[in-house]
Amino acid sequence: MATRTAAQQRNEAREAYDAFMKECPTNQLLARISDKWVSLIVSALGEQSPMRYSDLGRKIPGVSQKMLTQTLRSLERDGLVARTVTASVPVRVDYELTALGRNLCCLLTAVKEWAEKHFDEVDEARTRYDETA
Amino acid sequence: MATRTAAQQRNEAREAYDAFMKECPTNQLLARISDKWVSLIVSALGEQSPMRYSDLGRKIPGVSQKMLTQTLRSLERDGLVARTVTASVPVRVDYELTALGRNLCCLLTAVKEWAEKHFDEVDEARTRYDETA
DNA sequence: CCGTATCCCGCACGATACTG
DNA sequence: CAGTATCGTGCGGGATACGG
């Protein structure tokens, strides 16, 4: 049992690799931002702010309550959006971008505008690709 | 068999609805771009181009063969990257951004740089949030 | 070297129902 | 109105093996 199998060695290598990778914070943050709900919510709040919970739900097509709440919570945790509760009947909750959030929003709306601008080219490329297949 | 069942009609209506109303095509494209593998691959190709398949695999941490191939294919289909096969032994395949891809790349690397720059603030916000909990 | 094909697991996500 | 709680499932995506 002194001998180490190839599988074991591969596993150890993989674990070491994983451990190293977990420490690369930049990619993690990038992956968090590169999420479709994140970009949709942030850009929605960029256009109009503050917005109520239900406003966001109506503005963003196809989002479920769960994902809306979940994403908003994570954005709040990351300090990108601020949540304000107005205790009344019925309760009113507003969301708006923080300074940091507005900062990021510029970049994301730039991406969104890129999508609007170049959609035709992409669509064209797709049909061309599919025809050749 | 000439009659169309109510279920069929409902289905067709639903599909038409989904196709058109679900959300403007812009948001779909935005969702496609807001994918972590997409952003990682595009930004990798932005730094250095052209790159071989295995180079990309080595450069991007934690990507599987499957996701690498899959994402590259979709990017090729969307006209964002170009794939060049050099028939030799062994085969050599190079990937590089198209003009459209380079265009998008500027924006994505801006996002990546944002992530690098503001990571500390985000991390700080997180610990603050977790403490208050 | 550059993939494609296959299996399979976990969890992201949606649907639904319930509270303050 | 603004959420939580719970359950079911589809599919993203990893591991493995094989083909050109």
UniProtKB/TrEMBL annotation, chains A, B:
Gene3D superfamilies: Winged helix-like DNA-binding domain superfamily/Winged helix DNA-binding domain (1.10.10.10). InterPro entries: HTH_HxlR (IPR002577), WH-like_DNA-bd_sf (IPR036388), WH_DNA-bd_sf (IPR036390). GO terms for molecular function: DNA binding. Residues 24-123 form the HTH hxlR-type domain. The keyword Iron-sulfur does not apply. Keywords: DNA-binding, Transcription, Transcription regulation. This is DNA-binding HxlR family transcriptional regulator. It comes from Streptomyces netropsis (Streptoverticillium netropsis). The lineage of its organism: Bacteria, Bacillati, Actinomycetota, Actinomycetes, Kitasatosporales.
